[in-house]
Amino acid sequence: LLWRNKNLSAGILVGASLVWFLFDVAEYNVVTLLCHIALLGMLLLFIWSNAAHVFERQPPQIPEVIVSDQAFREIAQTTHDKLAHFVSILYDIACGKDLKKFLMVIGSLWVLAVVGDTCSFTTMLYVGFLCALILPPLYERYDTEVDHLVAKGGEDLKKLFKRLDSNVFNKIPRGPVKTKVH
């Protein structure tokens, strides 16, 4: 991701751009693509199998893929554990235990919904992939400037929240506070 191997990173970028072009611009369907790939593979195997003895070659040997029960159980257990952890985090956020995180998630989901309404899912994935490919090397190069801008933005958000708290939230009428008797 940091473009240490420029050929590999450029190849990944070209591959992702080709996939995005196929699915979003050319409106190629995933099912159609998978069927065409399977069709091409079967056609090549057919030709290779039938032409092997003409050219005195071995016919193709397809290796048997065996996944052990233990490996499958480990993958399933790891997936289950990660999903359960993710759901518990979402539950904690949704219950409002951390107001800051709750507001950040609500804001992020709203921004994602607005962006998702203006472009297709594949375009959103492609833009996310481009950001993942381009932003880390840019941050590595300009980290002090970015850190300064993020710190300044954080301070501005804190000032905005204090103004909202004093001008809006504190004016909301509340009932009497009950005190606990021990």
Summarize the structure.
With 182 residues, the chain is mainly alpha-helical.
Number of helices: 6
N→C terminal distance: 59 Å
Mean pLDDT: 86
- As residue ranges, the low-confidence spans are none
Q: Compute the gyration radius: what is it?
A: 27 Å
Classify the secondary structure makeup into a structural class. mainly alpha
User: How many domain modules?
Assistant: 2
**Which term fits the overall shape?**
elongated
Membrane topology: Multi-pass membrane protein
Pfam families: Reticulon
GO cellular component, one term: endoplasmic reticulum membrane
Main location: endoplasmic reticulum
Account of the protein in words:
With 182 residues, this protein is mostly helical. The protein has 2 domains: 1-54 and 81-118, no CATH class; 129-170. It has 6 helices and no strands. It has helices at residues 6-25, 30-51, 69-94, 99-118, 121-141, 143-167. The longest helix is centred in the middle third of the chain and has 26 residues, at 69-94. The chain starts with 5 loop residues before the first helix and ends in a 15-residue tail after the last helix. It is a multi-pass membrane protein. This is Reticulon-like protein.
